[in-house]
From TrEMBL:
It comes from Pediococcus cellicola. Belongs to the ABC transporter superfamily. InterPro entries: AAA+_ATPase (IPR003593), ABC_transporter-like_ATP-bd (IPR003439), ABC_transporter-like_CS (IPR017871), ABC_transporter_ATP-binding (IPR050763), P-loop_NTPase (IPR027417). One of its GO terms (molecular function) is ATP binding. It comes from the Bacteria. This is ABC transporter, ATP-binding protein.
Amino acid sequence: MTPIIEVKNIKKRFKKQLVLDSVSIEVQPGSIYALLGANGAGKSTLLKIITGLLDSDQGNVLVNNLTVTKDLRQVQQLFSFSAQTSSVDDILTGYENLVLIAKLRHVAHPKQLALDLLVQFKLTDAAKKRVADYSGGMRRRLDLAMSLVGNPEILFLDEPTTGLDPSSRNDLWQTIRELKSQGKTIFLTTQYLEEADQLADKIGFLGEGKIIATGTPSEMKHLAGSEKLQLIFLTSEQLAQAQTLLTDFKVQLIDEVSINVELPDSMQSVLKILHLLSTNEIEPNTFQVTSPTLDDVFLKLTKGASL
Ligand SMILES: Nc1ncnc2c1ncn2[C@@H]1O[C@H](COP(=O)(O)OP(=O)(O)OP(=O)(O)O)[C@@H](O)[C@H]1O
């Protein structure tokens, strides 16, 4: 399938600081792409370049096969951009904000559209409240609702859940999933590994100005290694006996009574290991299978830098 967004070899420098160094990204239509990176990695800068708000020094961006810098007017019809700073007007109510933006975008029946969006984003009860009195989660939902006025194909969301509590974050994730199920393409930036894991079809890790790794969440986790079986024994003698039996496996000592065993082929290896131990009358006290997380990938890629 032809990508709906193609970022090709983007370079951007602010004075002496090279912020983006040959960044290339492809996003498929109807998918969620998460650009993951630490504070200051260059995520917002890249979003501004993709949406035509900022010029790059090198490279180009195609949206629906249109070059952003040449065909900006046409490209702007295809997307909306929710920046980190909310675009809602505090003095107006949620309903008034939506009607205003709908009128500015010359949408037919702005009042009806505002009412429909308030229902879709579960804001009907707060429709007549001034936005100044909204919670952070309600503001972000209103922001998203406003970005849908004009029915754009692509939504760019810059750190959509930063500053939200876990419950509001979950609500917003659900809303983003619903937008994808309606066929929207979503390009979001985040510094939360869990958010990328929960939402993205494809992730790009931005580090030191480059995409240092890219893939689906499960492909990314494979970068951090295979699944492991953690075995905890009652005594160190049992552990030592187990080690002598597991010489065909990669074993990592955790403490004097626990080990991690790498599982090259998941369940088959688990069954083999437990069978081997039980036929030799060594019973672990507890065991569990652990899968690598995106945190493991990030630590491996950045050698411990914090996100
Ligand atoms: N207009 C500008 N002039 C000079 N430097 C800038 C400008 N905009 C961004 N920068 C610098 O570029 C780097 C990347 O900033 P950017 O805002 O793109 O990062 P980010 O990944 O979005 O970070 P955050 O998660 O904190 O929003 C930072 O070091 C920032 O100080």
